[in-house]
Each structure stands twice: as C-alpha cells, then as structure tokens.
Specification:
The complex is a heterodimer of chains A (316) and B (284).
Chain A (H helix, E strand, L loop, with lengths): L6 E2 L1 H12 L6 E5 L3 H4 L2 H6 L4 E3 L4 H12 L4 E7 H6 L2 H9 L6 E5 L17 H6 L5 E3 L4 H13 L4 E4 L5 E2 L14 E4 L4 E5 L3 H14 L4 E5 L2 E3 L3 H11 L2 E8 L4 H12 L4 E6 L8 H8 L3 H13 L4
Helix pairs in contact in A: 1-8, 4-6, 9-13, 10-11
Chain B lengths: L18 H22 L4 H18 L14 E4 L5 H11 L38 H14 L6 E6 L6 H12 L5 E7 L8 H4 L5 H7 L3 E6 L3 H12 L6 E6 L22 H10 L2
Parallel strand pairs in B: 1-2, 2-3, 3-5, 4-5
Helix pairs in contact in B: 1-2, 1-3, 1-9, 2-3, 2-8, 4-5
The chains are: A alpha/beta (316), B alpha/beta (284).
Chain lengths: 316, 284
C-alpha cells in the first residue's frame, strides 16, 4: 500500500515563492508566454506589472529577450510549459544563454506525462535530456512542493543558467518544513543495504513507496533523491553503488538521456553494478495522470520489480 | 534631454568626425576586414563590408560608449545579430581601442578571442551569435532593462536582410512595438544577397518597409554607404521616438571590392592570394 501523503502543487508553489523573492531581489523580472495563469506567474503579473512582460506564445523571442535582460543585470524568470520552454527555443537556450553563461532562469511547469489529458504533444518528456546537454546549465527537478520552493529560491540567489522542472498535477509532499535543500547534493531519504532506488521528481515518492514494498519482502532499499541533475552528485550515487551493489533509477522522462543515462555514465566509469531503469520508453497519450503513470509502468510495483531484478543480478 | 557627453574616461566616441573623415576611416577598416579574413583562410567578407559604414557611423559618431570601460552601465549598445559579419565589428572595435589591432590576425584561430561568430568574451561584443534571428530579441531585452533602470541608453541592432527570413525576427518586432521599446533602433543591412543566392531568389522580403510598419515600427530608408545621408537618418531615428525604429540601409554586398560586390560567392568565403592582392590594391 502506498503511504498516504498530503498533495501540493509545485507550480503554485513556484508562483508564490516568486512573490516572496520580489523585495529581496529587485533585479528579478518575470517573462511569460500567454500561459501565466497555468504557471502561476499571473500572481506576479498582477502585483508587479512593471517587472513583468508577456510575449505571447513566442518562446524563441521570450528566451532571447531574457538573455538580453540578463546581460543587462536583470534576473529574468522565463516561464511556460516544459514542451514550449525547452524544446521550442532550444537553440536560443544554447546560443544566447548557455554559451555566454547568462543568468536566465527557465522554470517550466507541465513537465512529464502527469500533464495528462492534453496528450503526447503536451508531455515534456525530453526536457531533462535537452537541458542537461547544455554545458553550464543547472538542472533541478524537485521531488515535491517543499523542494520546489527551495529550488526557486536557490535559482534566484545563484548566478548562471537554471532549468527548474515542475508538474501540472498536485504531487505528494515528502519533505517537512525543516528540510535543508543543498543544490548539487543528492539527498538520501531512506537508508538501505540491498539495493538503491535513485529517483528524481515525482518518482522519488514512488520510490519511497517501492522501498516499503521491498521491505515487506525483506529487502532493504536505499532511496536517493536526485533533485539536481546537472551538475550531478556522483559521490552520493557512487556510494549507493558501492554500498548496496545494485541500482534502479526512476524518472518520469524518456529513458534516453535522462537520470538513468546520467547515473549509468557515473557508475559505469567508476563502480559498475547491475542497473535497471524505470522510465518512459516512448510517447504517451491522452488520459488521466494516474492512468498514464500506471500504463507507462511508473508505479511502486514496477520500481519494486526492477529493484529485485537488479538485486538478483548482483555477483555474489 | 539625453546627455551624450558622459563618455567616461575613454575616447571611443569622437563626435568630431565628419562624413569625409569617417569615409577615410572606413577605407582603412575595409582593409582590416579583407586582411583578417584572408589570414584566417575563411570567413564572411560580403556582409562584413556591407555593414561597415553603419558600424563606423555608430562607433565613431553616434554611440555613447567607452572602450576603456566596455561594461559601462549607461553605454549605448550595438547588438550584431548577423554574427557571421564579425570581421566588420572586430575591425571597428580594434580601431576604437577595445582590443589590440594585432589581435585581428588571430581571427578564427585556436586560442583566440575572435571567434568565427562574435562572442562576448571580446570586450565590446554584447551578444553571442551565429544562429540567425536572435539579435532583435536580445536587443529588446537590453532596451527593456535600460528602461526599467531609468537609463537613457539607446540599443542598436544590425540585422541581415536574409536574416529577416527567420520567424523570431517578427516575434521580436511584434513584441518590441507592443512593449513600446522606443529606445530600440534596428538596422536592416539590405544588401540583397544571402548565403546561397540573391534574397529575391531565396525568399521574397518585399514590401519590407511595409512589413515593419505593419508590426508597429517607424521606418526610415537610407543609403548604407553615403555618410551624410546615413548620419542624417540616424539623427532622425533618434528624435521623436514614440515607437521602435528601423533603418533599412540599402547597401552593396562586398562594398568596396569590385569583384566581391553583389556577388553571392563572397558571402562566406575568403579571397585567395590573387583576389586578396587585388582587393587590397582597390582599397589602398
């Protein structure tokens, strides 16, 4: 049985956290692309109209304007849906933001298949691979609303390009108010010795539920929350490989180029252990978020089974 | 009234230049352009030579800037959107004192700051470039930031005419007038030649002035090589700004080197030795 947890919106948290940063960071400007109510930047738009610019659904221009503002000393938060914010202006992110290492904060909501009914074109499931491919971009995929607030605050305070990946759906809250977020340092949420579940985003809570299932079978699973995908915390991942001897990665993103690829590269280079990846292997479809997660195999049971496969492959 | 006297300690802007001395200066810089591309063995002479007189007007007459303090917050900015024409910008920046003149020899070479397409690692270069269509958006970002900070800086952008095929140019054009970026002045280097062929053959741009007007811009047209007319037009664009302004500068691709003029072959290739010697003789 999955644990009962409070649900909260990472995107609403983003919008409300921005408001809290407004006075402390007068250099923050918010750029929107006609989806401001959905990404919750309408809160900022209504309160700080002089520090808000709408560009309509024209994301290449929006990112380009953000780069020019960053080069002029502003901290632009550019926000839209993941499919429109990462894929559409990818070359602008590459040439105008990553190559000159400008202080543009891209915060996208509606990432992953949790976006649901709008269907495959609306499911941003390539965005981690794209964002992590850009040298110098910090990429954060918060596991819950508490972590999302930390990620947004940290992005505002830290110089350089950021991508923060958020969801449409409310997601389980797995951190309490005392949580200390450390950018670039993965969080061990549960210790274990037989296998490690290395997860990001919403799949961290799924991984915690999988660890409960494994415990019922006498298997001790470590759960690692990789909120920062770039730069990756190899130390915590390699410790998990060394100390538990098997890894299953879990992400709500395509298998190719996401967390599984990143972990495999680190582990393969330094400490090869059996690995399984729980991820998307193709495009999804229209449907309720919970239905899509089940159909895609992004469930505690699927993570449990993958963990057992990885554990069985361990060399005695 | 915009204060144009505050040039910090540097001597980059020299308002004393008249049309005649600017033309002489441009002749010297055209030699630098041809020389640097020949030395590199690759590059884009056509657009570097067509844009040059615009750059000379801006850096040696019109812009408020300080080569000793390239990041001066109150500077006017020039965004070279057609970044392949970097040799023209590098020649101007060297002459203005942003970079040593000798550095032009390192263009496109390993460990040089002078990348094939201009990058802001070079003092005086504002934007990374090389993918067309991006400069007007970036310039708009600079213009809006200046306005938010109550700075009276102007932001100039130089766009290629072939570059206006890019959709992002028109996204930026629409949003610049929507956001009333009156401190933004764009040039279109209308040299009528793009990478493969003449612009009319690749993609119809006309009626170009009407397009800009329809997007909410003030439109000026001028020769891009006649200094008196060019300076007069820039002066008009600076006055009475209630919209963003675009100056369609009618230019000649490869201007100043007879066999490069209006010749698509010299959009993106260096002269060989014989061509180099002939070009330098013409520009002597």
């Amino acid at each position: 049985m999955a644990a009962q947890r409070q649900m909260a919106s990472t995107r609403e948290t983003f919008g409300r956290t921005l408001l809290e940063l407004a006075d402390e960071h007068p250099e923050i400007v918010v750029l929107g692309g006609d989806l401001n109510v959905s990404v919750f930047t309408h809160l900022w738009r209504d309160q700080y109209p002089d520090r808000f610019f709408d560009f309509g659904p024209a994301e290449q221009n929006m990112v380009g304007v953000g780069a020019g503002m960053a080069a002029s000393g502003k901290t632009p938060f550019v926000s839209t849906f993941a499919v429109f914010g990462v894929g559409r202006p990818f070359d602008q992110l590459r040439v105008l933001v990553a190559q000159p290492h400008l202080n543009v904060k891209l915060v996208c909501t509606h990432a992953g298949i949790l976006t649901g009914e709008d269907g495959m074109s609306a499911h941003g499931i390539e965005d981690i691979a794209l964002a992590c491919s850009l040298p110098g971009f910090t990429v954060v995929c918060p596991s819950d609303a508490v972590e999302a607030a930390h990620a947004v605050r940290t992005a505002a305070k830290t110089d350089g390009p950021f991508y923060v990946r958020l969801s449409r759906a409310n997601t389980p809250v797995i951190h309490d108010g005392g949580y200390e977020f450390k950018l670039g340092e993965a969080e061990v949420m549960r210790d274990g010795s037989d296998v490690s579940i290395v997860a990001t985003g919403v799949m961290v809570s799924v991984g915690l539920d999988a660890a409960d299932l494994l415990e019922q079978e006498g298997i001790s699973a470590r759960v690692v929350n990789v909120h920062t995908l770039s730069p990756i915390d190899e130390g915590t991942i390699l410790a998990a490989a060394r100390e538990t001897g098997a890894i299953v990665t879990a992400e709500e993103h395509l298998a190719h180029g996401g967390l599984g690829s990143i972990v495999a590269q680190a582990v393969g280079r330094s400490n090869p252990v059996p690995m399984e990846t729980v991820a998307l292997n193709g495009y999804s479809e229209s449907g309720r978020a919970d239905e899509l997660m089940v159909k895609a195999g992004l469930t505690p049971e699927a993570v449990r089974d993958a963990a057992k496969r990885a554990q069985k492959r361990k060399v005695a | 009234m915009r204060d144009t006297s505050g040039n910090g300690s540097g001597a980059g802007a020299t308002p004393g230049h008249d049309a005649e001395s600017l033309a002489l200066l441009a002749r010297e810089l055209r030699r630098d352009v041809v020389q640097s591309i020949y030395t590199a063995g690759s590059g884009h002479p056509g657009g570097s030579l067509s844009e040059l007189d615009i750059l000379v007007c801006l850096y040696f007459r019109e812009m408020r800037h300080d080569p000793a303090n390239p990041r001066w917050a109150d500077r006017d900015r020039l965004i070279l959107s057609k970044g392949h024409a970097s040799p023209g910008l590098y020649a101007v920046l060297a002459k203005a004192g942003y970079i040593p003149h000798d550095e032009l020899e390192t263009f496109r070479k390993l460990n040089s700051r002078l990348q094939g397409h201009a990058h802001p690692m070079v003092p005086g270069v504002e934007m990374n470039s090389g993918s067309l269509g991006m400069g007007l958006s970036f310039a708009l970002g600079c213009a809006l930031a200046a306005r938010m900070d109550n700075r009276d800086s102007l932001v100039y952008a130089i766009l290629g005419d072939g570059e206006c095929d890019e959709g992002e140019i028109w996204e930026a054009a629409m949003s610049a007038s929507h956001h009333k970026a009156t401190n933004l002045i764009a040039f279109v280097d209308r040299n009528r030649v793009q990478n493969d062929r003449h612009t009319d053959e690749v993609m119809t741009l006309e009626p170009l002035a009407d397009k800009w007007r329809a997007f909410g811009w003030r439109v000026f047209e001028t020769s891009g090589h006649d200094y008196a007319e060019l300076l007069d037009t820039i002066g008009s664009a600076k006055r009475g700004r209630t919209q963003p302004s675009v100056i369609i500068a009618h230019t000649v691709k490869g201007k100043g080197v007879s066999f490069m003029e209006d010749n698509p072959a010299f959009h993106g290739r260096a002269p060989n030795q014989e061509e180099f010697e002939a070009a330098m003789k013409e520009l002597a």
